Amino acid sequence: MNLRRDVFQALADPTRRAILLLLATQSMTAGAIAANFDSSRPTVSKHLQILTECELLRQEQQGREVHYHFNPQKMKEVADFIEPFRQMWDQRFDALESVMQNYQTNN
Amino acid sequence: MQQKTHVEAAENKQEIVITRQFNLPVELLFKAYVEKDLLAQWMGTKVIKLDSHNHGSYIFETTDPMGNIHRFNGTIHDIEVNQKITRTFEMENTSFPVQLEFLIFESMETNASKLTIKIIYKSVEDRDKMLKLPFAYGINMAHNRLEGLFNQQN
User: Fold this and answer.
1) Which residue of A4, B28, B42, B148 shows the fewest CB atoms closer than 10 Å?
2) ipTM of the predicted structure?
3) How many CB pairs under 8 A join A and B?
4) Which of A9, A92, A95 is closest, CB to CB, to B138?
5) Residue B118 at interface with chain A, using a CB cutoff of 8 Å
6) Closest-CA residue to B96 (of B78, B68, B75, B73)
């Protein structure tokens, strides 16, 4: 699965957007976040996992609790509509580089 | 972190410039663009035709996850080994007009090279539409996937 593109997929889900909105002004534990939604706790955990994997959220251990923080830097990157276009070319060129490095080794 | 691929798209212009440095000698970078099998590998596309010479042309074909076939074609206007390719690019059966591409290949220090692609679009609107395509695609993919999950549950 393509993690970079997943940032946009993560943002396309209304629950995940609501979670980001909630965390924009404060950091919260998974339990406190889940209390704001009708969804089950495992469903909210799954959303948190996806948001963390694509770096829209950061986890921070505080004693026995894990707090979730919003990562504005990542959001800024995503807000730029050209970014997916750039990433598409970046991935394409990465593929070119690795195909040609293999070719160089084998010839 | 320094980004390897840079896209320059000035506002209200009908062009973009894409630049990228490679850990490859310029000969290999150029080869990746002119040899059918190599191009097919890194582009992840079927190369139906690739005549890499002045007044040559190419046809690529991809099949999306839904099984739809998409074809791309263009004319190679001018080619200078290890230096440049000037060509057109067109997506068949879409509302996107043909675009003109200038590819400049440059040798950097040993085993490094730089590629600059300047693309000229028919209009500013066409350029912006093309720039937004991967963004729209990412969002659509997400919606389709959510829709699929929703339909399964009902």
Assistant:
1) B148
2) 0.84
3) 93
4) A9
5) no
6) B73
